[in-house]
Amino acid sequence: MAVEGIVIVGGGLAGATAAKTLRGEGFTGPVTLIAEESHHPYLRPPLSKDYLLGKAGDETLPVVPEGWYRENGVELRRGTPAAEIDAEARSVTLRDGTRLEYASLLLATGARPRTLPVPGSGLGGVSTFRTLGDSRRLRKSLSAGGLNVVMIGSGWIGMELAAAASAYGNTVTLLGLEEVPLAAAIGPELGGFFRSLHESKGIGFRLPASAAEITGHAGRVTGVVTNSGEILPADVVVVAVGVVPEVSLAEAAGITLQNGILTDASLRTSVPGIFAAGDVANALHPFTGQHHRSEHWSNALNAGKVAARSMLGQDAALDTVPYFYTDQFDVSMEYSGFPSLVSGPPTIRGSLAAREFLAFWQHDGKVVAGMSVNWPRSDKPQKVIKALIASRSTVPPEVLADPAVPLDQLLPAA
Ligand SMILES: Cc1cc2nc3c(=O)[nH]c(=O)nc-3n(C[C@H](O)[C@H](O)[C@H](O)COP(=O)(O)OP(=O)(O)OC[C@H]3O[C@@H](n4cnc5c(N)ncnc54)[C@H](O)[C@@H]3O)c2cc1C
Asked: What domains appear along the chain, each with residue ranges and CATH number?
């Protein structure tokens, strides 16, 4: 093949990790990373947590140090979106007209926040939340405290932003379509745990409720009218109602889509030479035999590595147990597993009231997901949960719940 270069579209965690892995694996050919944003690739999880709270600075955000790209011969083109793929000619054209040929192309275009189609959503003080710029702007407006903040969306980002806004001394009300926040992800019992945590800090909930209209004066938001007609005063409104995978390039190139870009376990798309990774990819998982599209940090990290190895022709598969975490007030939660396999309520070890517990979800007696909340790290709870899931071993619920059984003894003997 005349062209041996690799082009990566999307300067997020998946794209930057793929570039790093290519060099780590000894690939010496040309690597170009196309980033729509003007920043060097950065991590998003701190944006709604310590960075927003002013407890972490800019230096904590880069995926790799800014000098890494130059030092490793990776051409990082910032502020230049890719506009078109010619799969036949194996080339990508950027919005500035530059045409790049590739031997392999990785699409790591992530996801975009869903917007709210209600009157007033364009008013000043109303925003979605995804980028470093969003976090900086929100920090600036929240940090003095004393504002009325309405959070629309009761998922992870809405709950984290509500916690941060409240920690700054603002009055926070959260609206969501679910009866219980986070119930779709972790079920009503544990969603209720997070709701109680937030209520104990003074956050008000309207559930289930939606925003019918956002009101304003002189171009700035003044309130949110709910579907029941209640008027919530608001100086700041954040719309955190989920994301949609950014598939426009892939769609125009005729790549098969299904809840994102459909890939096999090696992250190959339906078009030869084109791979997809991160939030945008709906990848076949060898453990379940189902496709999973994850919107979590560890998936972007692992998928970036796997895509790089696949593009180098190695036998690589995205077969890790999915993992994510959240920090809200003094609660640190980690979760590993396959929510799609969960079929009933969890077994709890520890105490929800004391905010220190483990939750295990089972299917046919096998552990398929597990969560740890403020659990001592010395017990390595996530390592045990992942190993339990991967072992497909059956454990009686009463044993999972029994604090007298050390965690590592839950694992089958080697
Ligand atoms: C505020 C926030 C908090 C989060 N917290 C957590 C957490 O606590 N735990 C957790 O597990 N996960 C968390 N996540 C999720 C995690 O950050 C994402 O799963 C991860 O960022 C996905 O990485 P990605 O590289 O696939 O996509 P992205 O990070 O979305 O990066 C994709 C990049 O591609 C760019 N792009 C799109 N189209 C083009 C184009 N045509 N040309 C060039 N560039 C393009 C986009 O501008 C973007 O910069 C959080 C996400 C957010 C937004």
From this structure: 6-112+244-311 (3.50.50.60), 126-241 (3.50.50.60), 330-410 (3.30.390.30)
Strand order in the sheet with 231-233: 211-217, 220-226, 231-233
| 99 vs 83: CA distance, rounded Å | 10
Per-residue pLDDT of 222-265, as tens digits, reads 999 999 999 999 999 999 999 999 999 999 999 999 999 999 99
H-assigned helices in 117-220: 132-142, 156-167, 183-200
- Does the N-terminal peptide bond of residue 208 adopt cis geometry, omega within 30 degrees of 0? yes
187 Cβ below 6 A of ligand 1: no
Cite the beta strand spans of 320-394 per DSSP E.
323-328, 331-337, 347-351, 356-363, 366-373
Nearest CA to ligand 1 atom 50: 45
- In testing the pocket of ligand 1, which one of 60, 249, 297, 334 has its CB within 8 Å of the most ligand atoms? 297
E strands along 53-147, which residues?
A: 74-78, 82-86, 91-94, 99-101, 104-107, 111-113, 126-127
The Cα angle at residue 114 between residues 209 and 110, in degrees rounded to 5? 140
Its pTM stands at 0.97
In the reported structure, the alpha carbon of residue 103 is separated from the centroid of ligand 1 by a whole-number distance in angstroms of 25
